[in-house]
Amino acid sequence: MSLHLVVKPKTGKYYHFDLGIVDYISGIETAFKTYIGESSIDELKVAITPKPMILIAGDQLTGKSTQAQKLAEHFRGDFRSVGMLFREAATDRGISVAEQARLLLTERGIDVDIDYKTCQMIAGNQIKSGLAVIEGRQPAYMGSFMSSLGKKNIVKLYFQCSIREQALRFLRREFGEEAYRTGSNQIPNEVYENLESLRSEIESLDLGGKEEIIDQFMENQSRDEDDRHRYSELYGFDYGNLEGYDIVLNTDDKEPDEVFEEVLKELKLFGFRAD
Question: What is the CATH number of domain 39-161+246-270?
Answer without folding.
Answer: 3.40.50.300
